[in-house]
Design goal:
Elements: H1 24-34, E1 45-47, H2 55-66, H3 68-73, E2 77-81, H4 89-108, E3 114-118, H5 119-131, H6 135-143, E4 149-153, H7 162-177, E5 181-186, H8 194-205, E6 209-212, E7 223-225
Parallel strand pairs: 2-5, 2-6, 3-4, 4-5
Antiparallel strand pairs: 1-7
């Protein structure tokens, strides 16, 4: 019988090895991950050690992580930003989605609950899909209107076109109306984001909780942990 080496729960699982093919926790979590668009390299948990200037920001993010179900159920919005690349914005956003999966797997069935979107890639795919439509991309785009939690990674990476504006606005308006939760990461401050996405989008993106990270690049300084029980900063 197969042993699920990449199972996020393998170090804390109460089942005797080898793994059971009928493990609901494994299969439901795997389903949510496979429909989340989170890169597989992010499926494990990456520990981050904050610079001294980011201790308070990490504490605030850890509080949101520990209350992620309440955050999501209430349709909150979080904007994580910094002037520096690679200092944990995307890793933190992914941590929050994974924690949400960990909290809701028993009650979710085989349903997508959260989606990760790299905004520049998504907008490029939207244009490509006009001439070369794919069912996979259509499913991903449709899920943005439905899932509980969406991460909008690297939003406002560049000034957007009218087409990009209408694409994002239609999704965000639907999500705000339905009180769906959103997490944004950006290198643009909330005060300047209007210059990149316009006033209407800026009012939706930066209207909730804002947390700034000031530390240096951590891309070569993080270590990976493979199970959900160690979701520390």
């Amino acid at each position: 019988m197969e042993r699920f080496e990449n199972c996020l729960y393998r170090e804390v699982c109460v089942y005797e090895e080898p793994c059971r093919n009928a493990c609901v926790r494994y299969s439901v979590t795997k389903y949510m991950l496979e429909h989340s668009n989170i890169p597989k390299s992010k499926w494990g948990i990456h520990k981050l050690v904050p610079d001294e200037c980011d201790v308070k920001a990490f504490e605030n993010l850890a509080y949101i992580r520990d209350n992620i179900v309440e955050f999501t159920d209430n349709g909150h919005s979080l904007y994580i930003y910094s002037d520096t690349c690679g200092n944990g914005k995307t890793t933190w956003a992914t941590k929050l989605v994974l924690q949400y999966f960990n909290e809701v797997w028993e009650h979710t069935g085989y349903n997508a609950r959260g989606v990760f979107i790299n905004v520049p890639t998504f907008l490029y795919q939207c244009k490509s899909n006009i001439s070369r439509p794919t069912a996979e991309f259509e499913e991903l785009r449709d899920s943005l209107f439905k899932v509980d939690l969406v991460v909008w990674d690297d939003i406002a990476a560049a000034k957007i076109s009218d087409y990009d504006f209408s694409t994002i606005l239609s999704i965000l308006d639907s999500r705000v109306y339905k009180q769906k939760a959103n997490i944004y990461t950006s290198n643009i401050s909330p005060q300047n984001i209007e210059n990149y996405v316009g006033a209407k989008l800026a009012s939706r993106i930066a209207k909730g909780i804002t947390i700034q990270l000031r530390g240096g690049d951590k891309r070569n300084g993080s270590t990976a942990s493979s199970h959900f029980e160690n979701l520390s900063v």
